[in-house]
Amino acid sequence: MILNNMLTSYSIACDLSSKENITALVNQISQREKHLDMLISNAGIRRDPPVACNVLTASLSELQASMWSSRYDDWEATFRINTIAHYFLSVACLPLLAAAAEMDLGEGRKGKDDGRGVVVMTSSCASMHNATNIDLTSYATSKAATDHLVKLLAAKFSRFYVRVLSINPGFVPSKMNPVGEEGNIFSNLFDQVPAKRAGNENDIAGAIIYLTSTAGAYIDGVSLCIDGGRILLANGQQ
């Protein structure tokens, strides 16, 4: 977080799985800040079925056994973090975001004209295609819900022009998507991505900078896919 135009940052640990924790987090921020230019809501988890299978080649009994092995509490945890936390964190931060959007920048311009007062949620391109080689059902469903949440919140916040958006990355190195020498579970799929590579931090940072800056100030309620063209070719196949 940047304080008073100085390159000063601070961190606050928070478990986003409860409203009480989110309230405490935003209260701490409100004690330090009068407005919030942007909220990057990035928390996410993935819970795969304990019994794995390749949906493209599994027998009927193997497919059912794999899907049935999914745990109810894993589904609940996935939605709690991947969707519900986005909702409550965005709502809790709404006054701070609205203050940023209404900030007087002089010469008749307000903060919203500069892209201020915006929520960017991290969704996934999994919300936009039907992956079948691995079972991402709970994860993909939670991300599809996030994409619709973006539209619902953008509409609800529209009178205050607090914008709500999401980025939907494809294969980007992370603890959830290991790539490279130490983890390459997706490396065999890169040749099937038109960009012929995994995404990187610059791809993601560039998109966020665009959406939260003057250049993106007229964009609202949109889910931006950043996947090197993957969903153009992979729908229902990979």
Automatic annotation (TrEMBL):
Q: Which InterPro entries match?
A: NAD(P)-bd_dom_sf, Sc_DH/Rdtase_CS, SDR_fam, Sec_Metab_Biosynth_SDR
Query: Which molecular function terms from Gene Ontology are attached?
Result: oxidoreductase activity
The source's superkingdom equals Eukaryota
Q: Which PROSITE patterns match?
A: ADH_SHORT (PS00061)
Task: Name the Gene Ontology biological process terms.
Answer: secondary metabolite biosynthetic process
Keyword NADP on this protein?
A: yes
Keyword annotations from UniProtKB, A to Z: NADP, Oxidoreductase
Xref: Gene3D superfamilies: NAD(P)-binding Rossmann-like Domain
In the record, the note on similarity to other proteins reads:
Belongs to the short-chain dehydrogenases/reductases (SDR) family.
Name used for this protein in its record = NAD(P)-binding protein
Q: Which organism is it from?
A: Aspergillus terreus
